[in-house]
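Notes to self after the Tuesday call (sharing in case useful).
The group wants a holo model before anyone commits to mutagenesis around the pocket. I volunteered. Ligand is S-adenosylmethionine. Logging inputs and output together so the record is complete.
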Amino acid sequence: MIDSHSLDPDAQGILATALGLAQVMGRAERLGPVAVSPQPWSGPVPQAPCDIADVLGRAREHRLETGERIQAGAHHTPPELARNLAQQALDGRQPQRVLDPCCGAGVFLCAVGEARLRRGEDPLAGLQGWDRDPLAAYTTRLVLALAFGLPLDDERIRCCDALEVDWPEVDLVITNPPFVSSGLSKGGLGPEKREQLRKRFPIGFQKRSDLAGAFVEGAVQSTAQGGRVALVLPESLLATQAAQALRDWLTETAPPSQIHLLGSDLFPDAQVRTATWRLERGTPIESFNLESRSPWTQRTVPAEQLRQAPWSAVVVSPHPLPEIETPVDVTPLADRAQLRRGFTDDFYFLARAIAEANSPHPPHPVVSVGLVDPGRHWWGERRAKIAGQWYERPALDPEALANEDPKRAARVLATQRGRRLVLATRSAVLECCAVEGGMIAQVPLITLSSHDPDELGLIYAQLLSPFATAWYLSRYGHLDQTGAGVDLRVPALAEMPMRPWPAVANSERNELHRRLEALAAHPGSTELKAVQCFALDLMGQPREQLMTWWWERLPKKLIAGYNR
Ligand SMILES: C[S@@+](CC[C@H](N)C(=O)[O-])C[C@H]1O[C@@H](n2cnc3c(N)ncnc32)[C@H](O)[C@@H]1O
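Result:
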């Protein structure tokens, strides 16, 4: 009998869910007698091992606080992805020793087990799973017991810190390690821990490295020659300077035979672009398979290219930039408008005077980067996180600001007058929307203003057009570490070519106003596309290719917003 009294309340909760599940699956005996009441299961009954891991993995995730989850990098992998990766990892191989060093709820162990069962092999032979979180290790035990009848006390599932223990030699490491970028890990890992990791993983974990790099090095080092490593990783590992040494090392020791770019929709609350890698330990390869999910593209790339050019140039940029020609009769944006980015200090200064609005129309609503999408903002409709705090309707209290420092308050507020455009600084496409006087644009939004409202409208349309994003990426795409997004900087934006009013006929002005008004009244995809097409025509750019490219770059959740 499991000594369920010694379990903490979270583990008892998962056990209760597992018991409920076991009862509807007719497998209660696999968990043995326990002193916990089952939580009756009313959802669809999971059919396959990975689906059991999915159900119990979600139960575990729900028990972690958001902060804890981010710190641990605990985002569980959807079963379909785990199955795909396991299939790739086992393709043409029968690895005897398999390790997932960050097993979460055990979805990869289940995916390997499922694939082996289909081949008539023992699903559990030589499998090992580790997780630093006792609740995760316990959840994996429950999952494997329910899925394959593994005894609950089997020692193949361990609670340990993979970055501290010795890794055994294996034939396959398959895992989704925590992604903890340097900023976060600075907070989470003290300098001592970082130093210790640098010593232990000198190639994968350097200054500013993502923690995932340490797992890549650990995985490759422990994999026997001829074995494989299959991982879910942040896309940035394909491009960042901090992972350059790791990539160079992999090119020689464990080159990739598959890289699949998955975009940013995999872990909705982590907002990170991900990719799966399959590495061949010690096996020279001639070419690798490169797939991108959205839009779906697939190529076979000669491996030699990874030696001749940075990996980012070969594999990132799943949406190749369309060719654009700068139109004639244009002037730089800086000649037509004032551009300004607030100081980082102002972010905290403003944040201290922000509170939840007590009316639906406060005089100074605050719009933050998370609220800005192309052609619209979501103030009052989407929650905003500002300086670690969530608001339904964030609003600035100018008195509170003035009380803190009247001169500084006056300076900051002077930059926030009148109708302006605001632009997000990190995004997949250029994200720009109009805000009215009184509204406060929180740092790091870039503000663009002009005395001439006609001019502002014309600039707005051109910034929304796919041409602007393509132009920016073609010149400044390298500023973004992943090589895949817009990292907007004022001096770079200032050079953007714009068609000025004198070049535009009166009838066209009226048409533009009509389209912008329609967008303001109802910011849907039809209205946005109408403005974009107007701007492309005005700039003499072909519509079809640029429009398709821009809308394919747009993250799915943004597209959903336009189609509501
Ligand atoms: C991104 S989740 C993946 C979980 C699971 N493999 C899946 O794909 O569903 C990362 C897991 O790694 C665990 N983890 C984080 N740091 C670890 C470490 N140093 N050693 C072992 N596990 C760790 C977390 O507790 C979390 O369960």
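Two things stood out.
Confidence is low (pLDDT under 50) at residues 183-187.
The first helix runs from residue 9 to 25.
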